[in-house]
Amino acid sequence: MRLELDHVSHRYGAEDLFVIHQLRLISTDMVHLHGPNGVGKTTLMKIMAGLQQPTSGRVRCIPMVGESVLQQAVIYLHQNTYLFDTDVRSNVDYGLRMRREKNNQKVDKALSWAGLDHLKYRQAHLLSGGERQRLALARALVLDPALILLDEPTSNLDTDSVVRIEAMLKDLHQRGTGILLSCHQDNALTKLCNQHWLLDAGALTVQV
Questions:
Q1: Quick check: is 88 in a domain?
Q2: Strands 30-34 and 178-182
Q3: Per the CB 3.0–4.6 Å rule, which of 79, 122, 129, 186 could disulfide with 151?
């Protein structure tokens, strides 16, 4: 998938938070989005995922040659992982049920991939921070996402959890999923990225 932003702006009151004339994100990219607090990184990611409308401009998702119909999802994962008030397995299965797809094998593979198969019947709210983040990624994986946008995915995680998240994101990228992650500081995840985008002073600069 190619995600295109053309002349996208977002305004608070009488002032533009940012204006982005042209931006492209494709499934082979792994991008680090950074910039000072309050410049609009989360807002930009939500606009890219279709969760929020820009003040002006256009966001388009264009399938790439040979890409399946299913692999067209743009998934945004919030810094504070939202989990449904059910067990772990039901959380992973939720997206498939919403699109009326029953695939128990796919769910079980995602749980194993995330190292959560032994916790599949535990209530999701009882998970640790690292486990919650892995559950969010497993829930995304079953939907065959073309692009995943992660907002501060390593915030408040211990070193072991960061290592596991790093391995999962590497694997997702190797499977053909494009990744955009917002991180305030350089870390193991940002070192994986082949592009770095700086959002500051109302403009975005692409640094290859």
A1: no
A2: parallel
A3: 79
**How many domains does the chain fold into?**
1
> Model confidence over 168-207: pLDDT tens digits?
999 999 998 999 999 988 888 999 999 999 999 999 998 8
129-172 per-position pLDDT tens digit: 999 999 999 999 999 899 999 999 988 888 889 899 999 999 99
Is the CB of residue 102 less than 8 Å from the CB of residue 96? yes
In a domain? residue 17: yes
Alpha-carbon distances of 108 from 92, 118, 132, 176, 208, rounded to whole Å = 9, 11, 17, 21, 37
Which residues, 6+ apart, have CB-to-CB distance to 126 below 8 Å?
A: none
39, part of any domain: yes
Separation of alpha carbons 18 and 51, rounded Å: 17
pLDDT band at 80, cuts 50/70/90? confident
